[in-house]
Automatic annotation (TrEMBL):
This is Cytochrome c biogenesis heme-transporting ATPase CcmA. NCBIfam families: ccmA, PRK13538.1. It comes from Thalassolituus marinus. SUPFAM superfamilies: P-loop containing nucleoside triphosphate hydrolases (SSF52540). Residues 12-218 form the ABC transporter domain. The gene is ccmA.
């Protein structure tokens, strides 16, 4: 059975979100909403708070003021239903180096029941055919990133939250990932991404520039 992200209602909202680190306000009074078909790129200079915001949106950190809502209800009221619909990829590839790509993939998608044949196919899609049973410590940084990204071919999650996913990818990897993101958004899924990589080729792109917000705050 194929996965149709448009069959799942995506409605993630931040209202008046505020976050401080080390007595420094990273962002405040921040409002955003992500729904089916949205691609939101968080922009801003190093240290602006992009990863911090992404982790809040993924439900990995509760150190904030303001509201985070899923389907109009507080995110943590029914967190498991939210977690089942979102896929988070952190800025590190986060593969276990002692394991092979196929073993890593089994572990990375263990929250969903996925046929093993589909995992082999996903590794083929990310151009890792022939490396499926090689320990990841023997793979390059870009190949390890591809192992983690193979999840995007498999996981039935409608909302992708991706932190610098282009890191270490070569030209063909970048082109593949851009297409994969575009396809997901066009199919009715949604993507929130931090990336210093330009994503201008994707028509529905929206940007939220945390550096600009901080500058506006300074001038207010
Ligand atoms: N666990 C933490 N404890 C204290 N301060 C933190 C913590 N994590 C991040 N920070 C601080 O919060 C600020 C924002 O960090 P964050 O990683 O969100 O920035 P970023 O915009 O993603 O940067 P980059 O483009 O370099 O990845 C930085 O000044 C950082 O030092």
């Amino acid at each position: 059975m194929s996965f149709a992200p448009d069959q799942i209602k995506i409605d993630l909202e931040a209202r008046q979100l505020c976050c401080e680190r080390d007595d420094r306000i990273l962002f405040d009074q921040l409002d955003l909403r992500v729904e089916n078909g949205d691609l939101l790129q968080l922009a801003g200079p190093n240290g602006a708070g992009k990863t911090t915001l992404l982790r809040l949106l993924a439900g990995l950190n509760r150190d904030y003021d303001g509201e985070l809502l899923w389907h109009g209800q507080p995110l943590y009221d029914d967190f498991s239903s939210y977690a089942a619909q979102r896929l988070y990829q952190g800025h590190l590839a986060a593969v276990k180096k002692a394991l092979t790509p196929i073993e890593n993939l089994r572990w990375l998608v263990s929250q969903w029941s996925v046929d093993d044949a589909r995992l082999w196919q996903a590794l083929d899609e990310v151009e890792l055919a022939g490396y499926e049973e090689t320990p990841c410590q023997q793979l390059s940084a870009g190949q390890q990133r591809r192992v983690a990204l193979a999840r995007l071919c498999i996981a039935p999650a409608a909302l992708w939250i991706l932190d610098e996913p282009f890191t270490a990818l070569d030209k063909s990897g970048v082109a593949w990932l851009e297409k994969r993101i575009q396809k997901h958004v066009e199919a009715g899924g949604a993507v929130i991404i931090t990336s210093h990589h330009a994503l201008e080729n994707i028509a529905s792109l929206k940007q939220l520039d945390l550096g600009q917000l901080a500058m506006n705050r300074g001038q207010a």
